[in-house]
Amino acid sequence: MNRQYTKMKALYHAVRDAIHDGNLVYGEKLPSTRELAASYHISRGTVNQVYDTLTAQGYLQSEHGRGTFVAYQADLSHEEYQVKSCTHHLSAWGNRIQQLEQQTAQQTAQARDHSKENSEVIDFSKYQPDLSKFPYDEWNNRLYAEIRHREENVIHASASVSSTGDPKLREAIAAYLRRMRGIHVDADHIAVTAGSMQAIALLTQLLADPGDHVVTESPCYVGISQAIMAAGAKLIEANLDGQGLVPQNWDARMLFVTPSRQFPTGEMLSLERRQTLLDWAHRRDAMIVEDDYDSEFRYRGMHVEPLKTLDKEGRVIYLGSFTKTLPFEVRLGYVVLPPTLADTFRKAQALYEPRPVNLIEQRALAAFMTSGQYERHLRRMNRLYSRKFHMLLKLLNQQLSTWFDWVENEAGLHVFGWWRGMPSAYEAFRASARSQGVHYSEVSSSTSDGIKVGIYLSFAHLSDAQIQEGVARLQKAVMD
Amino acid sequence: MNRQYTKMKALYHAVRDAIHDGNLVYGEKLPSTRELAASYHISRGTVNQVYDTLTAQGYLQSEHGRGTFVAYQADLSHEEYQVKSCTHHLSAWGNRIQQLEQQTAQQTAQARDHSKENSEVIDFSKYQPDLSKFPYDEWNNRLYAEIRHREENVIHASASVSSTGDPKLREAIAAYLRRMRGIHVDADHIAVTAGSMQAIALLTQLLADPGDHVVTESPCYVGISQAIMAAGAKLIEANLDGQGLVPQNWDARMLFVTPSRQFPTGEMLSLERRQTLLDWAHRRDAMIVEDDYDSEFRYRGMHVEPLKTLDKEGRVIYLGSFTKTLPFEVRLGYVVLPPTLADTFRKAQALYEPRPVNLIEQRALAAFMTSGQYERHLRRMNRLYSRKFHMLLKLLNQQLSTWFDWVENEAGLHVFGWWRGMPSAYEAFRASARSQGVHYSEVSSSTSDGIKVGIYLSFAHLSDAQIQEGVARLQKAVMD
């Protein structure tokens, strides 16, 4: 700011601090504006502005013809609680959020741990696409175009873009779902979300009260169990048996399920069980959330049609995501809503974000999809990942089939294996793998066969050489 | 996709639909792969893939040496609920969200109404900056640079960017707050949010249980009352009396307040009352959310220091926003958190968005601020808005002071006036203003003098000529 402003600010703070510190006391008369202007080498107008501001704030009081006086009594007793910082009373929701600490802290610690270690670590635990093959030029040009044309779009945008996302992107997603997944949906019933977590958390809040039961697969994505905990609902863990989760007549409000390819075990849910789940939802007046987290990549056979395509009643909510196919910083997902829930979801989303937060990226993605660039990219990546997948699976079956039972579902960006041996032997393997410099993800789960432990290896971001080296180290670890 | 894939898909659907429709019944034997390949002019391998997929999904069953059979019993009774769409059981939160309908629908209807009308309408109801003077070239170059350098940043970003935002942007905001608002805060205690609504909604959820009392000013920003309703808390409406809200010894968990310039009346909260609010929060173990929604613009005198600067205890949460200063599509705000609440807020934000959704814009803004471009832009806009503000206020005082009592707080992007006359006369004015083609925002409020109605005029986005024409129409409307 300019010099006059700086002087004004200095004078303001000088007077204010003097009052706060008790150097100018209640009722004391201040110098006239003329005197102060002369001693501070500033204009009388500036002094007047400072006095006016301090008067408006209640520090000073002006009495016509008598001058300006201190009107504020410094309460030095407030100092007594200066140092201590209060502990806040949190809502029940706030307390539950606070208790999510352990997991989040653990994840952070692990992430930090990774970044510290040397580049020689082979890290199968990162769930990231191979960005070295991403068509950045095409994508960047879409972004640049949206930025350049922003001004033309502003009026349109300010009038019509609701929290559920850019209309063109919702149209492009609807077309993609029709063509690639067999889901026939109106763009009005699609909401664009921040990755899939926003949808998972909002849906749980909308459908489950504290104390209600919500079913998840065991094991499942940690974000789902966090959302259920945050809502105060009770988790029912459904067992897996190789054909996906085992349906039961749960007394529950909602169910999270990954039918195309169970996360993380890779099991595919049979058609019969799909129908059983729909019947259950009908009987129980419950909702099913289908998380189709990486259906873009399949290396053999048909894409499995989503559970959503069997849903006649509007009981299935379908989640998709672009986080496995677009650059790291693009946090976009979507949810296909039953028409009766679309408006309520829109309002829930609007409570936190009345307008889309990443409109430029949403529009760039709409153009990227409509032009066919997105599907071309998927096909290219499918070939690349297929090669990596088969190489990894072959190596694992050759070198590690004695210790792990690798699931042969030919899709997605990771390979899952159940530990065949004793739990105590697994502990030794884990320690040894760490020391070999190979990281992976791990789950333990109650199955129909009791507590089992499994590991999964994300391979998309690794080179062929890294994959080979990683498996070699895992083999060394079991041999230890 | 390629032709082989299209044929495979066609066959898959033909078989699947035949089973669903009952044309292929349970136990029926399917043609051999050889027969089907010949009649469909496709390879046997393709037919095998289709059979494998349908088998995996449970539609078919293969018996070694005997052939392939239908394994699925089409349950045509499911058709009975095909047409009706279920009504979903919602949580208590979901029901409250659904009840927000009226307000949201109203706002949308109004927005549509605007867009339909001809361009001759003078619209004082849009709360938008004057984007015709925005330095788009500078800003776009910052965006382009972040997009180009994304690849270098990815590793760093994926390791360390938490849900609370880009570290450089949080540093830049901390520096801005120190320099311009007198708030000394560590960047770790700042969270970048989606506008200010995300902060308002999350904080209410974190601090207020259903049934708890939360104080707001009357009138206040509609988003605040929506967040309180969504949390199931009870609203206490605090009166205004020309010096901002009148403190009382409320039995409440939290208070929302706009001390610098009450929204929308423009009243400034006196220092004495600020101290009274802090004492109240101390006594009641309550939290105060200070929404500093447009403090960037002040046309005379000093910027008023925020309530936060008086907070010794960590009871004040300070909200700021960039939506009044950056282009429409940039939805960025921030919240200054007491250290004891920072971690819990981060977890609450991460539940919905584990990573920042608009990282490129966050980084562009960090560079825009650090380089001084942001403050230069603010100074330029301050001069421009100052001229518009004084012109509007002068016109209103000349032409409409008989009917409205215009508040003279010399700051912000709107001018507020209380209606001086009878409520019935106001109804006639409102109808007349509509027919004159001039829109504005309106609030009614219980004050210490009873129910009063007021209007406010946002002027930033209007040209001088539009402002003059708008006031002329308002005058015609009162003369009617």
Report on the architecture of this protein.
2 copies of one chain form a homodimer. The first copy, chain A, has 480 residues and is of the alpha/beta class. Chain A has 3 domains: 3-78, Orthogonal Bundle (Arc Repressor Mutant, subunit A), CATH 1.10.10; 147-374, Aspartate Aminotransferase, domain 2 (3-Layer(aba) Sandwich); 376-479, Aspartate Aminotransferase, domain 1, CATH 3.90.1150. Helix content of chain A is 46%, strand content 15%. Chain A contains 16 helices and 15 strands. The first copy, chain A, has helices at residues 3-20, 33-40, 44-56, 92-99, 101-116, 136-148, 150-160, 167-181, 197-207, 222-230, 271-284, 339-352, 359-370, 373-400, 423-436, 464-479, and strands at residues 60-63, 67-70, 122-123, 190-193, 213-217, 234-238, 254-257, 287-291, 316-321, 333-336, 404-406, 414-419, 438-439, 441-447, 450-458. In chain A, α10 links the parallel β5 (213-217) and β6 (234-238). Chains A and B meet through α1, α3, α4, α5 and α6 of A and α1, α3, α4, α5 and α6 of B.
> Strand sequence of the main sheet of chain A, in spatial order?
4-10-9-8-7-5-6
Overall pLDDT of chain A: 87
Q: Please name the CATH topology of the largest domain in chain A.
A: Aspartate Aminotransferase, domain 2
Unreliably modeled segments of chain A: 77-83, 102-118
How many structural units, i.e. domains of chain A?
3
The shape of chain A is elongated
Fraction in helix of chain A: 40-55%
Strand fraction band of chain A? 5-15%
Keywords (chains A, B): Aminotransferase, DNA-binding, Pyridoxal phosphate, Transcription, Transcription regulation, Transferase
GO molecular function, one term (chains A, B): transaminase activity
Protein name (chains A, B): PLP-dependent aminotransferase family protein
Pfam family, one (chains A, B): Aminotran_1_2
